[in-house]
Amino acid sequence: MSVFEGLRARLDRLLAESRSPDDRRAYAAGLRDAVIEAKAAVSAMRDQLAATERELALERRQLADAERRGQLAGEIADQETVGIAERFAARHRERADVLERKLAVQHDELDLGVRELESMMGELKAAQQGRAPGSGAPADAAWRSIDEAGGTRPDLDLDGELLRAQAERRLHEAAVDAQLAHLKKKLGRE
Fold first, then answer.
1. Residue-level pLDDT at 147
2. Are residue 124 and residue 156 in the same domain, yes or no?
3. Structural domain count, the chain
4. pLDDT tens digit string along 97-132?
């Protein structure tokens, strides 16, 4: 099981258990920890990929050296050295082939890990903003269809927001006027 599979299983378990706001906070905290672990895992994958690249470069240099030695030995008709150089070249060629395949797999694994990390970071952002885990594209599509039908999204109802702000302002002004009147009365200015 890869690091990301383990993290994803743990997050799925947290999500299944989250029912109340406290559970959602626990899910967000677990998700934050998982993102930290995933970032560390991606960093380790990058380090491993770099190590494989260095190892492959070394194998290629050793292959080139063995081939060059074999060619030089052939020019002076030293068949024993030619045979040894060919065996070493074959070993280095085989090892380089294996490392090239390993490198390709590591690139694919890193790409997958980065995509998984980005997904987890998106979920974390949604959880920190108070949206339910897993909400997003399906919820957005539902709101778009409501908008297309002529409905308004409560958080995007600008007319309602304007009316609410005006009512709050009138209440605030009335409270200020009442407080001012009280102070004037108290000071005997009225």
1. 63
2. no
3. 2
4. 999 999 999 999 889 888 888 888 888 788 777 665
Give the whole-angstrom CA distance, residue 134 versus residue 126: 8
Range of the domain at 166: 152-190
Contacts 24+ apart (CB under 8 A), 19-25: 24/127, 24/130, 24/132, 24/133
Q: Provide the residue type at 49 as one letter.
A: L
Q: How far apart are CA 97 and CA 52, in angstroms?
A: 12
pLDDT in tens, 39-48: 888 889 999 9
What's the pLDDT at 168?
A: 81
Query: Is residue 77 assigned to a domain?
Result: yes
Same-domain pairing of 110 and 171: no
Say which residues have a Cβ less than 8 Å from residue 97's Cβ, sequence separation at least 6: none
Which position has the higher pLDDT, 1 or 95?
95
Q: Are residues 182 and 90 in the same domain?
A: no
Is residue 143 situated within a structural domain? no
Q: How many CB atoms lie within 10 A of CB 119?
A: 13
What residues contact 163, with CB distance under 8 A and at least 6 apart? none
Q: What is the DSSP string of 46-65?
A: HHHHHHHHHHHHHHHHHHHH
